[in-house]
Specification:
The chain is built from 20 helices and 14 strands. It has 674 residues and is an alpha/beta fold. It folds into 3 domains: 125 residues, Chitobiase, domain 2, CATH 3.30.379; 336 residues, Alpha-Beta Barrel (TIM Barrel), CATH 3.20.20; 124 residues, Alpha-d-glucuronidase, C-terminal Domain (Alpha-Beta Complex). The strands form 2 sheets. An 8-stranded parallel beta barrel has the order 7-8-9-10-11-12-13-14. Strands 2-1-3-5-4-6 form a 6-stranded mixed β-sheet. Bound molecules: 4-O-methyl-beta-D-glucopyranuronic acid.
């Protein structure tokens, strides 16, 4: 049913079992700390499922012992392993003789690295890699690898499609659901080390004493797994819960409120991660309400948590309807000038694109533009704009496309990944955040395949340069089966699924054509309402003359926010990639695409191609029935049918709507909208 995620630990085939069991016959933890205990327990649990229950035995007393330990544990220290370069969270797994006995050592500088190494070791067996002679090391490239839960205190989840919030605020702190441990295990298996527990559209209540107690209970549960808790802070909390008349960040009473609040939280949660803040965005309060700046607001909070080692993650997702400018430009416009002014423990968290988690967006121009600031990545794992939980869309290629995009700010190779992992500008406080898709559904993520999006996010947060096809393969093997007759077609299907969604929803650089408010299904006709930049017509700009948003210098000039070679390319029809065409250009219906088709014909074909791809996924999945248990197979099959119908709905609705402007027939062989 999917509850076990990728940690199923089902028995290895008899033919391969013996070899693994011989190498993993016993476990020797070098200490008894809380994290070492869970590392040992996980290894035992995994091995018991995969190859048989391991014994307990000290290293060097027999062959096949797995020694778990940190640098300071004597059993590990005497092995003189090269641990230094592994940093705080990295690990090493090595086969070596101890007293002449074949031993596998999983070692790290800190216990948490050992836990990560245990998960890696289990993954090796789960994906049927050899373990007889190991010498591998891995360290995360990003410091804070976090989930952002948009979970409300009443257990509804903003943009959540997998049931209620897993955080049961009513029963906390006295009852901590055992599921919280499985949540921590799953995250630790990926190296995720932080969780923001509440929605960025925050209620001040989350900072009151009862909720701090509840958060502390979760922090206690997550601590052995290396996961710190963070809270979203409502900027106006000094008014709502502090009895003050203002939340002005330069007001001494306001500053004192935040300082006292931070002290109160750290008393309960000594390793509290810090605050995430959405300020002056979509109606949320912020420093601008008092004529102050993002710097004033962020640095005030940074000063409150700084002495405790906390951070402030300040979101750059800001736009205001009073601003007549292109919404895509506003984040950059508001933040760029502040480069170098934010405190050292502030991170500016930037969405992957400049609008809002669309099926495809060019990378956000703030990446690379603020070299003297900590710039973090915010991806959305929950599929707000990509068909919620029913559409099978593997987000690996979307994340990878953004991370591999070249900002060119320091010449070729200045990729977004190198901004995010701090390499480009020598930054140490780095962040990769994902808006979680986790809820109380039995399968956690609303669908079996949406688990892969949680998984790939975590793997990329560890290594933003990783290959998402390889990650999908690992996931498919661990979640379903190692049988290549399953893995190859399933992974191929996943890898093309995002492009298919782009095709049937918003091809050729179109964006934000979804239904109003809920963002599900097509709504290219959406207009009116409180603000232009919440409408589809604002983004498509379709008319008799053509379609697309001119962001070149003749239009909004958003292209000039990118480094000159990148911006010039986006603005140049001869250079811009067709996948971004209508993001940057307004073009006549008869504009010629690379294929030789007119823009109109090409658009129609893209929509249809998306639908056919989903047809293909239905066929592929049907053929994979022999390799998947019946309940999971049936659920995916049902969802793929929904996706098939809705891809058609998207195609038909979009074509019918845009045809009222193009006034052109469909290309030969294309069926009219149903
Ligand atoms: O696009 C919007 C979502 C909002 C969300 C916001 C944000 C949490 O539709 O639901 O609010 O993005 O990222 O702040």
């Amino acid at each position: 049913d999917g509850y076990d995620l990728w940690l199923r630990y089902k028995p290895v085939e008899a033919s391969a079992k013996g070899a693994y069991a011989a190498r993993a016959a016993a476990i020797a933890p070098a200490s008894d700390t809380p994290t070492m205990k869970v590392a040992r327990a996980e290894l035992e649990r995994g091995l018991t499922g995969l190859v048989g229950k391991p014994a307990s035995a000290a290293a060097g007393t027999r062959d096949g012992v797995i020694l778990l330990g940190a640098a300071s544990d004597p059993a590990v220290a005497k092995l003189n392993l090269p641990l230094k370069s592994l940093g705080e969270d990295g690990y090493l797994i090595r086969t070596l003789p101890v007293n002449g006995k074949a031993t596998t050592v999983i070692a790290a500088n800190r216990d948490i690295g050992v836990l990560y190494g245990v998960f890696r070791y289990l993954e090796l067996i789960q994906t049927r890699q050899p373990v007889a002679s190991l010498d591998l090391a891995s360290a995360p490239k990003v410091k804070l690898r976090m989930l952002n839960h948009w979970d409300n205190l009443n257990r509804t989840v903003e943009r959540g499609y997998s049931g209620q919030s897993i955080f049961d605020w009513w029963k906390l702190p006295d009852h901590v659901d055992p599921r919280m441990v499985d949540y921590a295990r799953a995250n630790a298996s990926l190296g995720i080390n932080g969780a923001v527990l509440n929605n960025v559209n925050a209620k001040a209540d989350s900072l009151t004493a009862p909720f701090i107690d509840k958060a502390a209970a979760l922090a206690d549960t997550f601590r052995p797994y290396g996961i710190k808790v963070y809270l979203s802070a409502r900027f106006s909390a000094p008014i709502e819960i502090g009895g003050l008349k203002t939340a002005d960040p330069l007001d001494p009473a306001v500053r004192a409120f935040w300082k006292a609040k931070a002290d109160e939280i750290y008393k309960e949660i000594p390793d509290f991660g810090g605050f995430l803040v959405k300020a002056n965005s979509e109606g949320q309060p912020g420093p601008q309400d008092y004529g102050r700046t993002h710097v004033d607001g962020a640095n005030m909070l940074a000063q409150a948590v700084g002495p405790h080692g906390g951070v402030v993650i300040w979101r750059a997702f800001v736009y205001s309807h009073e601003q007549p400018d292109d919404r895509a430009k506003q984040g950059y416009t508001e933040f760029k000038a502040f480069d170098g002014q934010f405190a050292d423990n502030v991170v500016i968290q930037v969405k992957n694109g400049a609008i809002d988690f669309q099926p495809r967006e060019p990378f956000h121009p703030l990446f690379g533009a603020m070299p003297k600031s900590n710039i973090g990545m915010e991806f959305q794992i929950t599929k707000e704009y990509l068909g919620f939980a029913t559409h099978l869309v593997y987000l690996g290629p979307l994340f990878e496309e953004t991370l591999k995009a070249d900002t060119m700010v320091k010449g070729k190779g200045s990729t977004v990944a190198k901004v995010v992992d701090g390499q480009l500008d020598g930054r140490k406080l780095t962040v990769m955040a994902g808006v979680a898709n986790i809820g109380s559904d039995r399968n956690w993520s609303g669908s079996q395949f949406d688990q892969a999006n949680w998984y790939v996010f975590g793997r990329l947060a560890w290594d933003p340069e990783a290959d998402t096809r390889a990650i999908a393969r690992d996931w498919a093997k661990m979640t379903f089966t190692n049988d290549e007759r399953f893995v190859k077609p399933a992974v191929d299907m996943m890898m093309g699924s995002r492009e298919a969604a782009v095709d049937y929803m918003t091809p050729l650089g179109l964006h934000h054509q979804m239904g109003e408010g809920h963002h599900y299904g097509p709504g290219p006709w959406v207009s009116g309402g409180p603000r232009a930049d919440w409408t589809s017509v604002y983004y498509a700009k379709a008319g008799p003359d053509g379609i697309g948003f001119d962001r070149t210098p003749t239009g909004s000039d958003a292209t000039s926010q990118y480094a000159p070679p990148v911006g010039a390319c986006f603005a140049d029809l001869k250079c811009v990639d067709e996948k971004d065409l209508l993001w940057f250009h307004h073009l006549p219906w008869d504009y010629r695409l690379n294929s030789g088709d007119t823009l109109w014909d090409g658009m129609v074909k893209h929509y249809s191609r998306g639908v056919s791809y989903v047809d293909g996924m239905n066929r592929t999945w049907a053929s994979l029935a022999p390799y998947v248990d019946a309940p999971r197979h049936a659920e995916v099959a049902d969802f793929l049918k929904i996706q098939r119908n809705e891809a058609q709905w998207w195609r038909d609705a979009s074509i019918a709507w845009f045809q009222t402007f193009s006034k052109r027939p469909l290309p030969a062989g294309e069926k009219p909208p149903e």
